[in-house]
Amino acid sequence: MTGMGRASFFGLLGAALSFVGGCATSNDSPPKPGTSYTPVFRADFPDPFVLEHEGQYLAYATNSGGVNVQMATSTDLTSWRALWDEKTPGRRHDAMPVLPPWVKEGFTWAPEVLKTPGGFVLYFTARHAASGLQCVGAATSQDPRGPFTSQATEPLVCQFELGGTIDASPFRAPDGQLYLYFKNDGNNPVANKPTEIFAQRLSPDGLGVMGEPVSLLRNDQPWEGHVVEAPAMVERDGAYVLFFSANDYGWQDTQSISSYAMGYATCEGPLGPCADAPENPILASTSQPCLSGPGHQSAFQVDGRDYLVFHAWAPTSSCRPAHQGRYMHIAQLSWNDGAPRLAPLEAR
């Protein structure tokens, strides 16, 4: 998602959301796990990523309400609360309160965290002050709650000639080699280029890229529109599956439902080659019950079970845009002969 997209479709409306007791207020009924794709966290929480840490689940999301990297926490995956700043009452916790020198504030998107022997690495997308493009950076912390810091004067990855780079996602292969997946921001109107998903090797500490990036996918299917993005690689039993999202992420008032959807590709290895699944998309918008714009997914595993976290637009009771941003959802992920299958989350 380019431009102001990850900041919030309705202009950083996270500042307008209110919280009571650490949870977002809502007039909707509470989620009923296992019956439909109902949100687990009803607050503007775009591009979510979940990390299990010491018996808790930590979720990270795109900037909202003046917070660069917002966070939420849960003990059961179905009930979540926002993290608050312990030193500043009334202010939400920021996992990266101080941005690196190369970054222009206000456009920090799609955080994902990798645990390494040296601590934790946060990968994020941010506005490159010098070029005005979105680029990928990395910051470190000994605590997964942060504060993550970086003194880098330049991005970790930025494909300037291809419109910039967004949506960084780390992956550790079974042999221990680290990889980073990302998307060139070709649908940025400044670039007007095809969008592709790339993979590149990471150094053992996760802080440097090695070799050249390899193109794995391009927006070449009708359902994808002009965008493929949000890569997330998963390996199970020797099979590699690359999840991704496609098409326009937004939900315009003129649309009955968002065209954003989720698909996957099968890959021969971490660096491909990859092939789109013929059954794509595997999760798309529906009006009954309302699920609009599901996407920017990330996979995680708990006690041997796989899950997929993603966002979707906040709807009204009549399945219209509620103007409250994007809510976090979690789906159960299973496999059928190497093909992923999604189902609504059941209570743990």
SSE map:
Blueprint: E1 19-20, E2 23-24, E3 49-53, E4 56-61, E5 70-74, E6 81-82, E7 103-116, E8 119-128, E9 134-141, E10 165-172, E11 178-184, E12 196-202, E13 209-218, E14 228-236, E15 239-246, E16 261-267, E17 274-276, E18 286-287, E19 290-302, E20 305-315, E21 321-336, E22 339-344
Antiparallel strand pairs: 1-2, 3-4, 4-5, 5-6, 7-8, 8-9, 10-11, 11-12, 12-13, 14-15, 15-16, 16-17, 18-19, 19-20, 20-21, 21-22
Molecular structure report:
The protein has 348 residues and is mostly beta strands. The protein has a single domain (5-344), classed as Tachylectin-2, Chain A (5 Propeller), CATH 2.115.10. 0% of the residues lie in helices and 46% in strands. The chain is built from no helices and 22 strands. The strands form 6 sheets. Strands 18-19-20-21-22 form a 5-stranded antiparallel beta sheet, with no helix packed on it. The chain has a 4-stranded antiparallel beta sheet with strand order 3-4-5-6, with no helix packed on it. It has a 4-stranded antiparallel beta sheet with strand order 10-11-12-13, with no helix packed on it. It is globular. The two termini are 32 Å apart. Mean pLDDT is 90; it is low at 2-31.
Largest sheet: 5 strands, antiparallel
Give start-end ranges of low-pLDDT stretches.
Answer: 2-31
Shape: globular
Beta content: over 45%
Number of strands: 22
The CATH superfamily name is Glycosyl hydrolase domain, family 43
Helix content: under 10%
CATH architecture: 5 Propeller
Strand order of the largest sheet: 18-19-20-21-22
Overall mean pLDDT score?
A: 90
User: How many alpha or pi helices?
Assistant: 0
In whole angstroms, the N-to-C terminal distance is 32 Å
Instruction: Kindly give the count of domains.
Output: 1
Tell me the CATH topology.
Tachylectin-2, Chain A
Q: For this structure, what is the CATH class?
A: Mainly Beta
SSE series: EEEEEEEEEEEEEEEEEEEEEE
Q: What is the rounded Rg?
A: 18 Å
Q: Give me the secondary-structure category.
A: mainly beta
